[in-house]
Fold:
Amino acid sequence: METVLEVSGLTVRRDGPGARPGRAPAAVENVSFDLPAESDTALVGPNGAGKSTLVQALLGVLPRDAGEVRVLGAPLTQAGRLPAAVRAQLAYLPQQVAIRGRFPLSVREFVALGWDPSGLQFPWARRRGRSAAVQQALAKVGCSDLADRLISELSTGQWKRVLLAFCVVRPRRLLVLDEAQAGLDPQATEQFHNLLFDLRRSEGWTVLQVSHDLAMVRRTCDRVLCLNRSLRCSGAPDHALSPGQLEALYGPGYVPYHHHHAPEPSLAPAPTPPVSPLPRA
Ligand SMILES: Nc1ncnc2c1ncn2[C@@H]1O[C@H](COP(=O)(O)OP(=O)(O)OP(=O)(O)O)[C@@H](O)[C@H]1O
Structure:
């Protein structure tokens, strides 16, 4: 199976107020993992554990202090650059996107911005198929009725769905989501997980998602990375989310609450890959 993302020895410091540049304690320390193609991997851990920092560093949005990142075999430069053809294969939905008050764009116009893959095509080739793709993307996230609304007029959950439509409006290889599910209603949550499942199985996408919803992670993801500054554990959900591992991750006294759902007909059972070895501290 092809490896879509390789992360090795990644360390990131965040120089907050008062910290001397380069002297801040590591927010992410010596993290190594791979993402095999078509996997759905959850990144879990307590607040402040470094999950957003990790995904931002591996996308080149935040500088790293040490380590290597390769996306589809291409090394991420120290300045956070990837070859344009590789960059075009990434979609990222950050925890917060605060542009919607500033631009008078309709939902349809906004999602269309995600269509142009690299600027390498001729303009007429870029436009061909765009409006159908926008319509399809909006339908996939259950937002067809919002197409003509201004993005500034959306509720938080509607905006999340539209951002997801922006990410899926054209084919890509790697989708990185930072708490994309937070704020979605139950129907949208179900739609969201079915969409991820379809993208992986029908279109070969690979997913890395930060999540606090451990019940959902257990049900829909096939691999879990447990982060608390360093990687504490990784592997199949049954292993990585076992009571012992959760107590080690979230602290003594953490009592996992198990939801007992009937199996969803639309979601196939997640395969259980072998447990990855822990990176050396
Ligand atoms: N903009 C910033 N400047 C300086 N330090 C930051 C900044 N953002 C986050 N940090 C610090 O980096 C560390 C990791 O934060 P991060 O946001 O990556 O955690 P997280 O696991 O995503 O948390 P949460 O679950 O609350 O979203 C924390 O100690 C946090 O205080």
